[in-house]
Automatic annotation (TrEMBL):
<feature type="compositionally biased region" description="Low complexity">
    <location>
        <begin position="377"/>
        <end position="398"/>
    </location>
</feature>
<feature type="domain" description="PSP1 C-terminal">
    <location>
        <begin position="114"/>
        <end position="199"/>
    </location>
</feature>
<feature type="region of interest" description="Disordered">
    <location>
        <begin position="354"/>
        <end position="413"/>
    </location>
</feature>
<dbReference type="Pfam" id="PF04468">
    <property type="entry name" value="PSP1"/>
</dbReference>
<feature type="compositionally biased region" description="Basic residues">
    <location>
        <begin position="399"/>
        <end position="413"/>
    </location>
</feature>
<protein>
    <submittedName>
        <fullName>Cell fate regulator YaaT, PSP1 superfamily (Controls sporulation, competence, biofilm development)</fullName>
    </submittedName>
</protein>
<dbReference type="InterPro" id="IPR007557">
    <property type="entry name" value="PSP1_C"/>
</dbReference>
<dbReference type="InterPro" id="IPR047767">
    <property type="entry name" value="PSP1-like"/>
</dbReference>
<feature type="compositionally biased region" description="Basic residues">
    <location>
        <begin position="366"/>
        <end position="376"/>
    </location>
</feature>
<dbReference type="GO" id="GO:0005737">
    <property type="term" value="C:cytoplasm"/>
</dbReference>
């Protein structure tokens, strides 16, 4: 989604080139639409004096507006930090901030709440921009230092504080890493205060962003804020093939979207009998081979006749199971399966005046072949015509010869 300052040139998007720090806040990650912006407060109510501020790659913090500054979405502000100050952008104001803080279990009456100092001046913005430009080359050098020290870690991102007094290195690692020597190298080379912060693989993907296998931006970097555990049972319930290459996301873990429809599948499976229950019939014992959750069908096969599957509904399967609990065997599954025989033949009609759908299946013969065929047919017709003419002449002669004797006999009489 582009911001209002983006434009096009010669039909192609030019872009604001702010790399996620647009003034209108439309290009940012994890944005929240302020649906209370057009509503006025009741008489006597004061506006909520907390503000949501966003930093690099979707990191958000909540600050107390003690100075009662008039802030709106997109304002660059100087905020309180543990040492010095930081520069961020206002992403949310008003009553919706109260809802977000309640959702994230952040109390409003904090004695040590961080504060907003002022709106950022041009000097603050210049220092902040220069620090942001140093992050990418520093990341390349920092990764090389970690490789030289043979540390089993990956430095995924670097974030400078707004006053350029501290750099936070985000890294991922499978196990604990002793990076004390690495910090000394960083401090000596970069000449700034260093803070190391370990993040998970899902948090790393959320910070960096990317495009998923569905063709859209990653959920964790656009709107997903909480990371729930995903297990392989979610794929089993949805009857997905346990292929790690297809089920894993950009973080290397199972995709978060496996949990999106899991509750719907679990509700649908409540009406299904367990697949390990065998159906007892007079013809034999039937074992479940396949289920269709969407249509509510199940396929069973007799023991010893594994190639012949019989399709029945879940209601019929439950009915047979109830009969078996009463020590009653049904005659066979064919009686139930015959009720589900449907005509699967589909007829397509040309209702919009289009050409045949198979018009491209067989190529049209060339004109040369047509002409050669025509010539060949004409030659054969001429050859066939000559013997027919000869036969006709011979027939006429035979007729004349038959008539001559009759005439001679009459003449003799």
């Amino acid at each position: 989604m582009a911001c209002a300052s983006c434009s096009t040139k010669d039909g192609s998007p030019k872009g604001c080139k702010n790399n996620g720090t647009c003034g209108t806040d439309s290009c940012n990650k994890l944005t929240v639409f302020d649906w209370l912006a057009n509503m006025s407060l009741p008489n006597g109510e004061k506006p909520f004096n907390w503000v949501e501020v966003r930093y690099k790659n979707g990191r958000k913090e909540y600050y107390h507006n003690t100075e009662n500054l008039t802030l709106s979405i997109g304002d660059i502000v100087a905020t309180q930090a543990k040492s010095g100050h930081d520069i961020g952008m206002v992403t949310l104001t008003g009553e919706l901030v109260r809802i977000q803080m309640k959702r994230k279990n952040i109390p409003e009456n904090l004695e040590e709440a961080l504060k907003i100092y002022r709106k950022a001046s041009q000097k603050d913005i210049d220092i902040w921009s220069e620090a942001r430009d140093k992050e990418e080359p520093m990341k390349v050098r920092a990764r090389q230092f970690a490789i030289d020290l043979k540390l089993q870690m990956k430095i995924s991102d670097i974030e400078f504080q707004g006053d350029a007094s501290k750099a936070t290195f985000y890294y991922t690692a499978e196990d604990r890493v002793d990076f004390r020597e690495l910090i000394k190298v960083f401090a000596r080379e970069f000449r700034t205060r260093i803070e190391m912060k370990q993040v998970g693989f899902r948090q790393e993907a959320a910070r960096l962003g990317g495009i998923g296998s569905c063709g859209r931006e990653l959920c964790c970097s656009t709107w997903l804020t909480d990371f729930r555990s995903v297990s392989t049972s979610a794929a089993r319930y949805q009857q997905l093939s346990l292929n790690p290459q297809k089920l894993a996301g950009q973080c290397g873990k199972l995709k978060c979207c496996l949990n999106y429809e899991l509750d719907t599948y679990l509700d649908a499976l409540k009406s299904f009998p367990k697949t390990d229950i065998k159906l007892q019939t007079e013809k034999g014992t039937a074992v479940c081979q396949k289920t269709d959750i969407f249509k509510g069908h199940m396929w069973y096969a007799y023991e010893g006749e594994w190639m012949n599957w019989h399709k029945i509904t879940t209601e019929q399967a439950n009915e047979i199971i109830e009969q078996n609990k009463k020590n009653i065997k049904v005659a066979s599954l064919e009686e139930y399966a015959s009720d589900l025989i449907e005509d699967t033949k589909t007829e397509f009609e040309n209702v919009v005046g289009q050409d045949s759908l198979t018009r491209f299946d067989s190529p049209k013969p060339s004109n040369k072949r047509k002409n050669n065929r025509k010539k060949g047919n004409q030659g054969q017709s001429n050859k066939n015509a000559t013997p027919n003419n000869n036969n006709s002449k011979q027939n006429n002669r035979n007729k004349n010869n038959r008539r001559k004797p009759q005439n001679s006999k009459n003449a003799a009489k």
